[in-house]
Amino acid sequence: MQSPSDRGFSRRSFLKGSAIAGVATTGLTGAVAPPREPQTFGPGAHEVTLLVNGKPRQVTVETRTTLLEALRDGLDLTGCKQVCDRGACGGCTVLLDGQPVNSCLLLALDAVGGAVTTVESLSDGTEPHPLLQSFVHCDALQCGYCTPGMVMSSLACLQQHGKPTRDQMRRDLSGNLCRCATYGRVMEAIERTAQGGGK
User: Fold this and answer.
1) Contact, 144 vs 80, CB < 8 A?
2) Mean of pLDDT over the chain
3) Which of 52, 73, 135, 194 has minimal Cβ neighbours within 10 Å of its Cβ?
4) pLDDT score recorded for residue 197
5) Do 93 and 149 touch, CB atoms closer than 8 A?
6) Which domains can be identified in the chain, with CATH numbers?
C-alpha cells in the first residue's frame, strides 16, 4: 500500500493548497473591510452615550467604571443588583445585543455602540411583560434578590429558543444562582410564557 507521501500528497502539501485556496477565495469575494479603529480613553471622566432600553442615554464614566455602576449610579436603573461583584451569581445580568452578560464584569465603555436591555424595559407602559406576569403566576421568586437577573436570562432563553426544553433552560440559567432554590418554578414561568401565558 502506498503512503500519502508516495502518492504526492502530504500534510504539508494539503496545508499549502488550503492557504492558496483561501487567498483565491478572498480575492473572489472582494476586499474585506478593515476593522473599526477602537476608541481610546485616557484617565479621568468621559461623557459617553449608551443605548439603553432602546433610548440613547448620556452618562459620565471613568475608564474603570463597570456597566453595572453606570446603570445603577449614573442612570438610576437599579433593577440589576450588585451582589457578588465578581460574575459568580448572575444578579446583575443584563442583555447586550441580545446576549446575557454580567454587568459587574463589563466596563461601561465596552458597551458603547451596543444595545443594552435591562429589566426595567419589561415594565414600560401600562402592562408588564408576559414573562413578568408568568413569574408572578408561577410564584417563581421568594426573597427576590436574584429575580431581575433571572428574568433577563430567562428572556434571553426565550428569545433564542422560542419554546426551550428543560435542558436548554438549565444551560441558559446556569449562570444565575438562587439561594431560595426556585429553579423549578422559574422554568415553569418560562414554559408558561412560551405557551402564550401571561398575556
Assistant:
1) no
2) 87
3) 73
4) 80
5) yes
6) 47-122 (3.10.20.30), 124-194 (1.10.150.120)
What gap in Å lies between CA 85 and CA 95, rounded to an integer? Answer: 17
> What is the rounded distance in angstroms from the CA atom of residue 137 to the CA atom of residue 126?
18
Burial of 78 (0-12, 13-18, 19+ CB in 10 A): middle
Q: Which three cell numbers stand for residue 60?
A: 459620565
In order of 26, 30, 193, 199, the CA distances from 33 in angstroms are: 12, 9, 41, 45
List of residues 6+ apart from 186 with CB closer than 8 A: 135, 138, 140, 150, 154, 169, 173, 178
- Helices 130-137/183-194 angle, 10° precision: 130
pLDDT in tens, 63-102: 999 999 999 999 999 999 999 999 999 999 999 999 999 9
In angstroms, the CA 8 to CA 111 distance is 52
Pick the residue with more confidence: 58 or 17? 58
Quote the percentage of the chain above a pLDDT of 70: 79
Q: Which three cell numbers stand for residue 41?
A: 480613553
